Amino acid sequence: MPRRRCDSENRPLGIGMELYLLRTFAAVAREGGITRAAAVLFLSQPAVSGQIKALEEELGLVLFERTPKGMRPTPAGRALLASAESLLDGQQALLDQAKLLKGEIAGEAALGTVGDPQLLQLGDFLGRLHARYPKITVRLEQSNSGTILNKVKNGQLTAGYVVGPAPGGAVQSLLLKQFWLYLAAPAGWREKVETASWEELLTLPWIWPAPQTFCHLAAQALCRQYGAEPPKAVEADQEQTTRSLLKAGVGLALMHEENAQAARAAGEVFLRDGARQSADLRFVYAARRARDPVISALTTVIHEVWAL
Questions:
Q1: DSSP letter string over 61-128?
Q2: In-domain check, residue 2
């Protein structure tokens, strides 16, 4: 008796292919392995493996090869990846257009935040967003700039605030504010710090900024840049506290420009020429989602809040 051919054998290649298989294919290629892709997709590892196997059977091609570090696309996988991502982007564009035709902007926005909410003007932003777009719900996720950028790239976050240079590439950004952080030393430490290198400065006691502040992010960046962490004499969560501790001779600290200049004018601190760090606060989102109505709503309100 001749074998009965199943539907997948009878239909033309690709007809009826499920887009979720392409989404899994793109995630494994982007993340470089089943484990990381499963975390991004909120699926079990067996489920991701099964979906990759199903897609390979559907296409009649091997899409990945195993490496010591995970998985990488085969030549066939690399050739098909751009088409898969294009189809996924097309699906998102269709859904976005449908929302606009219905005259509503609705959905969830997962928003990454860094530092103090007041410095982000987060309350004003959320209030305006809810008033104008009541069908958008926001989920906040406090993290660091690097993690937020990665999650925006892979779709785990809709958008977010980061501190740093323009990321470019797959991520678009709006510059919200640029500011300077000055290295301040007790006034009596001038001879000790005036000609010291950053490596030498990081051997001295520091008044360490509290987590979730821009000064903390800048201090962490300094440590990464010079491969050292200073002795932390005390941790301060308010800049007025930091100013008092500097006046008392406790250690070095980073201060926002306005407070640093005021403390120097009062004779409380020494600011070494050139010892300052610039910091850019940015709002970021995936370039491929630039036309997403929810992204458009977020950026519209960001422009209002920050007078861009």
A1: S--EEEETTEEEE-HHHHHHHHHHHHHHHHHHHHHHHHHHHTT---EEEEEEE-S-TTTTTHHHHHHH
A2: no
- Same-domain pairing of 170 and 182: no
Residue that has been written with the tokens 């294009």 in this structure: 86
Whole-angstrom distance, CA of residue 303 vs CA of residue 10:
53
- What is the Cα–Cα distance from 262 to 267, expressed in whole angstroms? 9
Q: Quick check: is 87 in a domain?
A: yes
Contact present, 270 and 189 (Cβ < 8 Å): yes
Host H or E run for residue 262: helix 257-265
Per-residue pLDDT of the chain (308 residues; tens, 9 = 90+): 443 333 433 344 444 568 888 889 988 988 888 888 888 788 888 999 999 999 999 889 999 998 888 899 999 999 998 888 888 877 777 776 676 666 578 889 999 998 778 889 999 999 999 998 898 999 999 887 778 888 998 888 999 998 878 888 889 999 998 888 899 999 999 999 998 988 999 999 999 988 767 788 788 888 888 888 899 999 987 788 999 999 999 999 998 887 899 999 999 999 987 777 777 889 999 988 888 889 989 999 999 999 99
- The CA–CA distances, whole Å, from 306 to 42, 46, 263, 281 equal 34, 46, 28, 11
Are 260 and 112 found together in one domain? no
Residue 244 one-letter amino acid: S
Tally of structural domains, the chain: 3
Tell me the pTM: 0.57
Which residues, 6 or more positions from 260, have their beta carbon under 8 angstroms from its beta carbon?
A: 182, 184, 269, 271
Joined tokens for residue 289: 């989602």
Among residues 136, 147, 146, the alpha carbon closest in space to that of 110 is found at 136
